[in-house]
Design a protein that fits this description.
Number of helices of chain A: 9
Helix content of chain A: over 70%
Number of domains of chain A: 2
Number of strands of chain A: 2
Order of helices and strands of chain A: HHHEEHHHHHH
Largest sheet of chain A: 2 strands, antiparallel
CATH architecture of the largest domain in chain A: Up-down Bundle
Shape of chain A: globular
CATH superfamily of the largest domain in chain A: GntR ligand-binding domain-like
Strand content of chain A: under 5%
Oligomer: homodimer
Strand order of the largest sheet of chain A: 1-2
Structural class of chain A: mainly alpha
CATH class of the largest domain in chain A: Mainly Alpha
Chain lengths: ~230, ~230
Amino acid sequence: MTPTLAAQPVFRRKSLHEDLTEGIREQIVNGSLAPGTKVPEKELCLHYGVSRTPLREALKALATDGLLTLEPNRGAWVSKITQEDLDEVFPVMGALEALSGELACKHITAAEVRKMRTLHNKMVKYYEQRDLANYFDVNQHIHEAILDAARNETLSTQYRSLATRVRRARYVANMTQERWAQATDEHEQIMQCLEKRDGQGLSVVLKTHLENKLATVRDWLKDNDQPPAA
Amino acid sequence: MTPTLAAQPVFRRKSLHEDLTEGIREQIVNGSLAPGTKVPEKELCLHYGVSRTPLREALKALATDGLLTLEPNRGAWVSKITQEDLDEVFPVMGALEALSGELACKHITAAEVRKMRTLHNKMVKYYEQRDLANYFDVNQHIHEAILDAARNETLSTQYRSLATRVRRARYVANMTQERWAQATDEHEQIMQCLEKRDGQGLSVVLKTHLENKLATVRDWLKDNDQPPAA
DNA sequence: TCATCAAAAAATGCATTCATAATTCATAAT
DNA sequence: ATTATGAATTATGAATGCATTTTTTGATGA
């Protein structure tokens, strides 16, 4: 008996440079490609087992995202995270996050709210266990869920592109106990706004939440310098 | 007598793919590459007199910007402007424009305000002469000036990338006399907010201004279909 | 010892080439 | 006449090669 055609998933073949883009993006975000350092084109070719052509296409794409800086005839460099960058990026993220809050309250379904409450409880559990890695992970999912609920692909794309640029910093920046408690509390407020469909309120909470995050990262940056290269 | 070295401008050599990116972007924005059509890779190579390698790098970059859609093994297509796109893009632009208004009022200098008033007067003159092309041009400059005054590169970049996607539509969408008068009036309000450094007010006016623009473009879209290809 | 400059080495930008996938077109079958 | 099949054509994805630029290295002189 042969399976029906409809039962088969659509086979969408990804091209090599797309995979590379994601792979290298991940390397930048998790820090294995450090900010301020040169991108070792040859090494990456060996590592991924590809030629320079698709690799360089991926680099161009990442540069458009702002994760890399291309200097003509001098190659690609991992963009540094500077104080100025953060002060630039966070207000923009704030504006986008505020919008996502408003839109999410307009479009979110009851089922989605319930799902998010579950996620939230899970996160609180990790907070109580002081399990930072899992806390971060679930946290990420919650913010993604808010974006999804906003039903605006453009917004999601723009936000994610900015978030990627600062996520590197957020990963390494350790939270104090107080900040962590505060962040968790803010998340409780986020949930309540969602449950009340209070778009205005959610806007404000999300913006505050982000501003506090900025403060954390800023503190960390003060104590941690990066390589001097551009 | 040889010129001194210092007198020479820093010769920043642009790489080929950067030029190409700009050239093709322009072709998309001004409509000579129509939405929904396939990008003729070979033709463009001949036109610009380059090989496929830098051209394809440019295409990748434009795809990251959302101006093109890449289908694996099937090439690049000019993204269509759909009703849904606009309804997605404009709220995001609105949020960014509101932020730019607030920031601009904080950072703009008196000299900049004067310069903008000059621009504004020029634009009004073109309005009175019903010179749409020049009106658009100066209009563009004014909005750029507001972005510049916000002193936030990230914001400018994000905004421009979105603006590019809808500019194609704005170009072709004809304004009615009423709409044109209204837009000009809104610009007068923008100037007054800037002169008073009224960030809140400017936010609101810019957002309204944009919403009206959306209405214009939306009307146009209703009457103008695009090729059916993805 | 340090600075300067030249030559060698390495890396980048771009063109070309090759393999593979997609599209078109002609032919055959219903 | 219309649809399906398969070969020919075309276009894309990726690797390689070459010319040019940048960087490094090392030798020379102060």
